Amino acid sequence: xxxxxxxxxxxxxxxxxxxxxxxxxxxxxxxxxxxxxxxxxxxxxxxxxxxxxxxxxxxxxxxxxxxxxxxxxxxxxxxxxxxxxxxxxxxxxxxxxxxxxxxxxxxxxxxxxxxxxxxxxxxxxxxxxxxxxxxxxxxxxxxxxxxxxxxxxxxxxxxxxxxxxxxxxxxxxxxxxxxxxxxxxxxxxxxxxxxxxxxxxxxxxxxxxxxxxxxxxxxxxxxxxxxxxxxxxxxxxxxxxxxxxxxxxxxxxxxxxxxxxxxxxxxxxxxxxxxxxxxxxxxxxxxxxxxxxxxxxxxxxxxxxxxxxxxxxxxxxxxxxxxxxxxxxxxxxxxxxxxxxxxxxxxxxxxxxxxxxxxxxxxxxxxxx
Length: 369
Description:
Elements: H1 2-34, E1 40-49, E2 52-56, E3 62-66, E4 78-81, E5 88-92, E6 105-107, H2 120-135, H3 137-143, E7 150-154, H4 161-171, E8 175-180, H5 191-206, E9 209-214, H6 217-220, H7 229-246, E10 254-260, H8 268-271, E11 278-281, H9 287-298, H10 308-313, H11 320-336, H12 344-358
Helix pairs in contact: 2-3, 2-4, 5-7, 9-11, 11-12
């Protein structure tokens, strides 16, 4: 009887231990259920105490939520949360991936100055304000002058704005970061400004780099007194862009080139001294320019008795992009005739097609010799 009494406490402790182990196992299994995909990715905005925080979800809303035990957090961290309760379950380690990556074309261009015709003056200006500061910054420091932070290219569509930007990036051996400004205008509040920050952070990481912002008028149009949330978001993104432009040194290894077809609608704040100081116009090509462009695009074509001088005279008003399309269409007309050489008549048909497609007044193509 005395022996049984001594064994009783040990038995109770053993049973209690087993019960606790079972409870811990159950809680772990429940916790694992919470960690099963899918989980939401959110940003921590503020830590209130050891188990409470304010997070921002993808649609821009903020929530006051619980923190699962043992998750060390700081404001700005990216976390995974359970969908129903939004309880923070896990911190996502910081990476060097940027949200803006999906909107960008990042490359080392192969376009050279020799691939561009009819833009000698514009090439000279880009060489002075982009190439020289990147390749010889000590020259500007010695002279005590500051080159422009940015260059604005303007002119009709197809006149070579993107080609110039790619060629200067190739000439300077820099990373070419290309995006369309409308991609920065996001649906959710604050997302556009964050993308602008990410864009410049990425450029600093990939430096030396050239940021090429196409169609900048979609973001930097003159400000209107509109009370819509969409208009306010555009302005918020635009102001962030101005802040980022102002935030780096003139003699840095990052340069900005912007392009627009509508110089007349740009906000004056973008054009004030210290931002886009150099404004370069790309007009429609003159006869000599068209001759150079046609020579470039036909150099690898198998031509028979094609007079490029005559063709130049009959392509007035066409842009460089349209002249390239003209050469391509002439090749297709030869293919349809099962020929391996391109004739004058192919260019005549191609010219008629280009003029009809782009709404040009037809010229007397029968005058070709």
